[in-house]
Amino acid sequence: MRFVFYVVFGFMLASCGTPPPEPTPPVSKASLVKVSTTNVKFDDVDRFEWTGTRPWRYPVHGIDVARFQGEIDWHTAGQSGVNFAFIKATEGGDHLDEKFRQNWSAARSAGVLRGAYHFYYFCRTAVEQANWFIRNVPRDDKALPPVLDMEWNNMSRTCRLHPSPAKVRSEMRVYLARVTEHYGKRPVIYVTPNFYKENQLWRVQGYHFWLRTVAGHPTEVYPGRPWTFWQYSSTGQVPGIEGNVDINAFAGSVVDWRNWVVGELE
Fold first, then answer.
1. Domain tally, the chain
2. Out of 5, 84, 141, 197, which residue is the most buried by the measure of CB atoms under 10 Å away?
3. List 64, 149, 171, 246, catalytic entry
4. Residue 147 to residue 120: CA distance in whole angstroms
5. Quick one: what percent of the chain has pLDDT higher than 90?
6. pLDDT, tens digit, for every residue of 64-115?
7. Residue of 128, 140, 151, 264 marked catalytic
């Protein structure tokens, strides 16, 4: 009998016009991308005296690392304002950075958005190199797009080839197509000023570019080239990392960053 009373009483409440609970508004994926802009603690041991647009005009900054950075405290780095990290994975067709797997896992555990990069080697084919990268870098929907690092390696003891600009661009397109097919994300292209000019990389369209220029704004050094990332120093000092590290800026606002990340992860 008590059960019947509860049921009837509940029905009476419902019939008195008690409004249903408000639906939970959908959560924007962009709002889930954590951004640190108020606690940036980077320094630079060889700071350039910028006269034009300064790197810190941009609110979103990150780093790129390899084995040379040694043991990285990723939690400390993330708390200091590192919003993203590009981590060296492979080089050529048979070299794996000895710190890649450790950095890849630790960065994710610390909540730092990360992507992997491949350093191109001109004495192996593009297909060999793409396959080597694919073999060593996990397919992770939560990772940033992979990066193709294109620059002359004049210090190489094993490869002094300087292919023609047309050959360079042709091999790049082969590599990029293979990696895009596997990961479902178009890679970002990293370049240095002399490599970009010598190989006429303004002819390569349809990709995000990450531009190195430590003594001038990208619009000055790469006229007419849209850019997404700017490597503005190789002598950065970041808490959690001993010694120098490359530091980078994203091209847009915090909202632009969130939207770009969401677009790349979908």
1. 1
2. 84
3. 64
4. 10
5. 77
6. 999 999 999 999 999 999 999 999 999 999 999 999 999 999 999 999 999 9
7. 151
Ranges of H-type helices in the chain: 2-15, 74-79, 100-109, 126-136, 165-183, 193-198, 218-221, 254-265
What is the domain range of residue 163? 66-217
Q: How much is the pLDDT for 31?
A: 62
Strand partners, 59: none
Known catalytic membership, residue 64 = yes
DSSP string, 88-145: EEEETTTEE-TTHHHHHHHHHHTT-EEEEEEE--TTS-HHHHHHHHHHHS---TTSPP
β-sheet bridge partners, residue 44: 236
- pLDDT tens sequence across 18-47: 455 555 445 456 765 878 766 677 899 998
Neighbours of 186 (CB within 10 A): 16
Instruction: CATH number of the domain at 92, please.
Output: 3.20.20.80
Has residue 110 been placed in a domain?
yes
22-60 b/e (C-beta count within 10 Å ≥ 16 → b): eeeeeeeebeebebbeeebebebeeeeeeeeeebeebbb
Regarding pTM above 0.90, the answer is no
Active site residue 91: no
Residue 237 belongs to a domain: no
